Amino acid sequence: MQLYETVNGEIKVRLLRDHQPNQAMLNEFQTAQFDCKMTKMELCGNRLHGYEVDEPACFLKVFLSLRNVTSDEIFIYKEDFQLSYDKKKFSFEAEDEFGVSGQFPNVIELDADETKEGCLVFLIPKGAAQILFTYHEYADEEDPGKTYRLRYVLK
């Protein structure tokens, strides 16, 4: 996986060591309704699209390709994607849409066999060494669903 980092207006590219036991599924997972592939990540510093966060926080853009594998229209909810860092027990939802180019809306609609590409924006500490990207599938109130995980070492 490549991590793009903007430092003083210059974009640097780093290769990350990926934690994936099944190399055939590197950077992706498959649910019953859609395939999700993480194509890249970008550390954007503490300013993004006119917004600024206090140090030591920084913006992290996670670029995804989502493909509907069913013959029906599906809806994917942004809040089902979460990110945690440095083995913390809690995780964070992506930021609400605020005009970043390609940013996914709060509800992502996919027609049968449709693929959409875009990004989710998260806030993480600038010094974070590891991240865990998760998608939690909610089937209904009685079925807690599955959780899919992608782990990365940033430093």
From TrEMBL:
Keywords tagged on the record: Signal
Name listed for the protein in its UniProt record: DUF4352 domain-containing protein
Superkingdom in the source lineage: Bacteria
Gene3D superfamilies: 2.60.40.1240
Species of the source: Candidatus Merdibacter merdavium
